[in-house]
Amino acid sequence: MMIGFIGTGNMGHPMLRNLIKAGNKVIAFDRSQSALQSVVTVGGAMASSQKEAVMDAEIVITMLPAGEDVRAVYGSHDGVIATASNDTILIDCSTIDVENARAVAKEAAARGLDMLDAPVSGGVAGAEAGTLTFMVGGSAEVLNRARSVLEAMGKNIVHAGASGSGQAAKLCNNMMLGISMISISEAFTMGQKLGLNPQTLFDIVSTASGSCWALQNHLPIPGIVETAASNRGFRAGFAVAMMAKDLRLAQLAAESVDASTPLGSTAAALYTSFEDSGNQDLDYSAVIKLIAEQPR
Ligand code: NAD
Q1: In testing the pocket of ligand 1, which one of 54, 131, 242 has its CB within 8 Å of the most ligand atoms?
Q2: pTM for this structure?
Q3: What separation in angstroms does the CA of 270 have from each of 162, 248, 265, 275, 287?
């Protein structure tokens, strides 16, 4: 399969490497030259423009930061929708708001193009291992045509419903993840103050009812969980800016349907304040610093 890939950052790079490993041809574009150059090291081709990455592709995959980036990449006069050939399937794997996801899919449909929103869960480690979960919004028939490509990058491919439903599921998931990381940060900070050894606390709670995915994979205390960014000075991983964005998107989504999310709203405020104090590029697990430094 010939795949055009736009957005070769923390997630996009390992995702496209797995596409190549599975025998696909990948031509990639990123507005950052440094992000794009690494594509060649894993057997991909570098496009000199977005249009070049798109025009011969059977499938176009985008992995971009936010809704406005997705709108710009798909919707501009030389954007994906204007330049893709007629039977190309468009798949946006970025995490964005439901409204923009639906709007872009509608623009694609107006040109007769099939589009899926397919945000992922599993982080950089999941992208590297090819074990991501894809939450897919759009037609089930289109998903079936694109399934083998998603399977090259992920382990669980779940059809969430109509267009925008993948993003809705992703926002619910990340609201849970943000809240979980704050709860872990509070518990380990309090535990340490109570004289508990963090390794001992981890050994206990990781096999008890306090356990969760963030604890097992992204513990914000170094030297205990191998995959945690805390072992690498909180180098992202999943950046604070991304988590803050997702939590704000979750709040917008909650408001739009009048859903009560008291912890989701607190998590959005805490991550936004941590982001605003210059921590936007750290891994989201670094929020433990905010919790540890805050007066009671
Ligand atoms: P990133 O910032 O590392 O990568 C995004 C890339 O997109 C960058 O290289 C940037 O240069 C490029 N880009 C932005 N605008 C562009 C444009 N107009 N044209 C071409 N390239 C453009 O971000 P990431 O961590 O890879 O995350 C990407 C998406 O995946 C986000 O929506 C994020 O919320 C989601 N996500 C991230 C993780 C994670 O652990 N990092 C996990 C799940 C989902």
Answers
A1: 242
A2: 0.92
A3: 32, 11, 9, 9, 8
